[in-house]
Protein: Formamidopyrimidine-DNA glycosylase
Organism: candidate division TA06 bacterium DG_24
Amino acid sequence: MPEMPEVETILMDLKPLLAGRRIVSADCADPSAIKMPGAHGEFCRRVAGTTIVDLHRIAKYLILRLDTGDEIVLHLRMTGRLVYDPDGEQPATRERVALKLDGGGTLRFVDLRRLGTLHLVRDARRLPAIEALGPDPLAPRFTARRLRRLLRGRRSRIKPLLMDQRFLAGLGNIYANEALHCAGIRPTRRAHTITMDEARRLHRAVRRVLRKGVMHGGASTRTYRRPDGSVGRFQEAFEVYDRAGAPCPTCGEPIKRIMVAGRGTFYCSRCQR
Ligand SMILES: [Zn+2]
């Protein structure tokens, strides 16, 4: 599943291609992708002829702001992809929605498992799912002190808590595993037992792994691809994720794999306490 660094990579790739472009028409091969009252007919009518003025990101949501004031809000979920097709007229396989742009070029929303969503709203920040999001770990206001305050009084294990989008927005399984290894904290630790010193390390680690993910163009473990079809490279830099039995890069101890809250969890029993 694309996590925040993957969505940030998609955003940076698409921005120069889409900003300032006019949407000539929208095709909805799969109307169930459109989550709005009046559904796809209304969507196609309202976006045709508009210009994309800007693109930005809130957590894992990608937002295209139109000159009409409307915003297209995309969430890729498990297998969603955005493909920029510079000249092709042929729809892609598993295509759900296509935006044809002036001067040629089509943005295709492709989604094998069809769990991704697309909203057209006046203000993305008012979407209930976005209003419910926790703080953005890369925002300046997200400090170690704030993280410690959030952890206090939470009895759940730290790893599923880090992946809970209402607690912190943007971390999924890969980056939660990597951040906990980087911070030297065991994934099964109860959140409220984390000390101020550990919270400082975790705060630094979360930001570091997210930035590292962006630097590598995201992690292509399964379906994630950049809009031009190329793969991300962060999977080559994993320290623990998907490395069960391989030596810990810090101490050489074999990486362990366990299940925590139903998700594959990787850690070093010597470095992470
Ligand atoms: Zn280790």
Q: What stands out?
A: The chain has a mean pLDDT of 95. The beta strands are 23-28, 52-58, 61-66, 71-75, 80-85, 95-101, 106-111, 117-121, 256-260, 263-267. Residues 248, 250-251, 253, 268, 270-271 surround zinc ion (CB under 6 Å). Residues 196-215 form the longest helix (20 residues).
